[in-house]
Known about the structure:
There is one protein chain. By secondary structure, the chain is mainly alpha-helical. Helix content is 44%, strand content 10%. It has helices spanning 2-32, 38-70, 96-102, 163-166, 174-187, 204-210, and strands at residues 73-80, 86-91, 126-129, 156-157, 214-215. The protein has a 3-stranded mixed sheet, with helices on one face. A hairpin with a 5-residue loop joins strand 1 and strand 2 (86-91). The termini are far apart.
Amino acid sequence: MKKNKKSIVFLIIIFTIIFTFYFRNKFLVEENVYVVSKEEVNDKQDMMIDKSSNENIIETEKVDLNKDVNTNMITIYISGEVKKPGVVTLESNKRLADAIKELGGTTEDADLNKINMALKIKDEEHYIIPKIGEEIVNNESTINENTFSENNNKKININLAEINELEELPGVGEATANKIIKYRDENGSFKSIEEIKNVNGIGDKKYEDLKDLISIN
């Protein structure tokens, strides 16, 4: 009898231990289980999409900024031996060759030995493509800033010239031509060619380029 009681007590103890161990582990497992709701999944997806969109916007802004920096537009005038002489607007990092190409290229009579096609163009400048056999006034073998040929030896009267005539001068674009006319209207006729240095934007260097090409009568 005592033996049976011991066996029963032993079985109860074993059962209690097993029962306790089983429910303890089950409780711990359930504690560590984290159920992700559908809303949380959507929130995470939205966050990932927003992050990706923001990165794309930043990259786009960088590209646009670089584009703005590198693509400033300038306007120049090309005459002489080009197929379509005239005004052309293009990006500031372009070369003379690019501008000439926009105007249909040079004519068969163009003296290519006197043209520096790799020259970097400048805003408001006037470039003249010389004809074979023509001598260049400044005796340079290539176009540097502006090249005036023999048919441009006639001086421009700065007291009478209109905007389009003034624009034929080296380094004089529409803006500078307007300043010259404005100065003339406000101060009367130029008394000397040197007085043109009083016009805003025309300093000693530009005057040296102009003095042999302008007159006051």
